[in-house]
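Below is how a single chain appears once it has passed through the pipeline. First comes the sequence as given, then the structure the pipeline wrote out for it. We keep one example in the README because the format questions we get most often are answered faster by looking than by reading.
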Amino acid sequence: MVCSCFRLLENLNLTCSVGHLLTETVSAHQKVFHSGSGSLVFLAGAWSKTALECLHQGISIPCILSAMSEGLEICLQQCKDKAVPVDTLFHLGVAQNILEPHSKDFPFSREGSLPEKCSISDCGVSPNLLTQLSRLGNPEAANRQTGTQGAKVVRSKIKLTHSRHFTSNDTTDSERPINKSVSRQNSLKHTDMNRVAAALSHGCHKAMDLVLQASRIQSSMGGLHNSRRMFDVSKLNTCPLPGVPEDQACVLSGYVTLLSDEQASLATRLEKDMMCLALLNGDLNEKYRHLGFNRPAGGVQHVTDKLDVHAMSREQEWLNSALASLVKYNISVALVTGVASKQLADECSRHDILLIERVRPVVLHEFARTTGAVPVTYITQLNQRCVGSGVRLQVWREYHTGKVEEYTAVSVTADHLTLVTAVIGSSVHGKVQSLEDRFWGCAQRLQHALNEIQLLRGGGLTEMHCIQELQKHADCSSKRSEEKRQKEPYVGTVLQLMADGLLDYVSTLLCNSGQVLSKADAWTEISKGFKDPERDLGHFEKILDLGVINGGECLGSVCEQERVYDNLTVKTEAWRRALDLVFLVLQTDCEIITGVNAELEDDLQSKGFLIL
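Resulting structure:
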C-alpha cells in the first residue's frame, strides 16, 4: 500500500511544524533523485536521537552542531574513498542475465502500423559508447573527470538552509544527431551497460528492463551526441494504464498519452498524415497570465456610458481570435502544458484540431527541436515562424473493460525524436503509482551512475565502513592532548552516538531483507565483524553477507553474483539533508526559547525539565 517514504509522507496529514519540514525535505530530495528517501527519513530520526541524547548529557547545541558536522565529514570522506569506478563492475561478476526484454506485446492490438518498438537483437547502440568505455578503462581519465566533482560533493561544509529549495536546475548539453550504425562490437559493449543497470536495479528488474529498452531506443533514434549521455532521463515519459497486466509493460518512441473517446476519434481521422504543430507553454484560456504578469490593483473597474447589448464578451472575442489563429496556420495538433478552455476544445474538435493538455515542458522542448516549432505563452503570439511540421498521430491501443471503451492510447511522433514513453500498467489500480515510481528511480540511478562514473557498495557495506571510521575517531578523541580534550570533551561521545545511528540503520536493513530474524541478531552479527582486527570489505561480506540482493527468490549461485550498488551523490545528499533537518530543528528551538533566568532554570531542572 505504501511504495516509498515519499508517498507515505505525501498522504499523511501532518499538522506539526517538524512534520512539514520533513515532508519538504523529502519532497525536494525525491524531486531531484527519485530515490534515497528511506535513508533520509531513517537517518533524520536516528541522528535526532543522537542530538537528543547529547542534550540529556548536558552538551550544548553549538557543540552538538560542531561535532555532528565533523562526523558527517568523516562519513562523506569514507564514501569518497570507498567509491568504485563503474568500469570495475564489468569484472566483478555482476549477473547480466536478469534483465531481458519482454517478448510479449500488448494484447489490445489495433490493425495498422504501430510506433517503433525496441528489441535487443535489432536496436543499435551509439558508437560513442566505445569512446566512453575506453575512457572508463583508463583510471586516470576517470579520475580526471570525477575528481573535481567528487571534491565538491565531499569537502563542502554543512550549511543550514531555511528555504524549501535545496537544489538548482540541472544543465543539459546541446544536442546533435549521431550515426545509427550497428555492429557486433557495439552490442557487446552495451552488455556492459546491462551489468551496471543490474547492479543499480535494487530488485526492480522489470522497471530497469524498461529503462534499458528506453536507452536503446534513444541510441537508435540519435540525438545523444555526448558519450556521457548514452542515456538521457530528461527525455523519458511515462503513460500509466490501470487495468493492464504488469507483464505487458513496454517502451515506445514518441509521446504516448491517453485520450477521451471524442479526441481518439479525431486522432483516427488525422492518423498517418503529416501535420502542423503548435506548442503552448501555459493554460489555453482567456484569463491565463504568465507568472511575471502584474495584475492591476484591486478595485479597478472599467466604466462606459454606452451600452451595446449585441457586443461580444471579452472571452468570446478571445475564443474567436484563438480559433482563427489555429485555422489560419493550418494547425492540426496543439500541445499545451496547462489546461485548455472547454469551449475552445469543442470548437477545435469541430475543425479537426487535436488539443492535448497537461504535457510536460520537456516534451514541448523535444518537439520544438525536431519539428522547428517555437513554444509560445499566449495563442495570440502564434505566427508562421512558430509553427512546426512533420508530426504524425498513431492510434496505438484501445483498451476495453467489458463492452465499454475506457480510453485510447495515442502516440505523437516525429522524425529524429528521441523522446521515449514507458507504458506502465497493473491489474491493481493502486499499484500503478508504485510501478511508475520504481521506473523513475531506476532511470535516475542509471543516469547518475553514467554521469558520475563511480558507485558505492550497497546493502550496508558503505555504512559499515563509516561506522568503523567514526569509532576510530571517537577512540582517538580520548587520546588527544589534555588541553584539547578539556576544550572538546564531547567529541568522542557525539561521534559514537552517530555511529550507533548508522548501526541501527544497517541492522534494520538486514532485518527487513530477511537475512536475520531480529535486530538483536543483526547487532550480534555486526559486532562479530568489528572484532576482526583487519575489518576489511571482504570480512564484512563474509560475516554479514551484505551487498547481496535477496528479493526472496535466490537460485543457487545466481544471487551470489548479483550485488547491489548505490549512487554516490544520492547517498551523500540524503545524509546531508537528514543532518540539515536535525540542525534546523535544533537551532530553531534554541533561538525561540527565551526569557529563562538562571534561578528559574535551576528550579526547572530540579523538577526534571530539560532546558534547551
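The mean pLDDT is 75.

See the next section for the split statistics.
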